[in-house]
């Protein structure tokens, strides 16, 4: 992934997202080989002085935004997936708290030592998993 390609994708989202979604700040657009993650900034709800009430107000703001924007987010994600060949994950940030709505779980290669490989091979031999990657 080149910086130019990441800048291109971030620029597309900057132009494609509705203005009311970017009023509290520019979105964070993070790109890797499989996924584009878009984290939108939401304004914190006003008037909740008690920490417990403030936490509930933030949860309400996030839940409301998620439900109210679902259809439009899905449409934008479909356009981006077609254009860039990657799935799109969505999240929001209110202050220092970030909540992800969707994200991919992508298998990754790792270096395993022999005892760890033996555990995987045992799972495959027992029929619990189809392959080491599945285990």
The tally of beta strands, per DSSP, is 4
Low-confidence stretches: none
% residues in beta strands? 15-25%
Name the overall outline: extended
Strand and helix map with partners:
Blueprint: H1 3-16, E1 28-31, E2 35-41, H2 51-84, E3 87-94, E4 97-100, H3 114-125
Parallel strand pairs: 2-3
Antiparallel strand pairs: 1-2, 3-4
Q: Can you characterise this structure?
A:
The chain has 135 residues and is an alpha+beta fold. The protein has 3 helices and 4 strands, in the order αββαββα. The protein has helices at residues 3-16, 51-84, 114-125, and strands at residues 28-31, 35-41, 87-94, 97-100. A 4-stranded mixed sheet has the order 1-2-3-4. The protein is extended, with a radius of gyration of 20 Å. The model has no long low-confidence stretch (mean pLDDT 87).
Key attributes of the depicted protein:
single chain; about 140 residues; alpha+beta; 4-stranded mixed beta sheet; 3 helices; about 45% helix
Short overview:
This protein has 135 residues and is of the alpha+beta class.
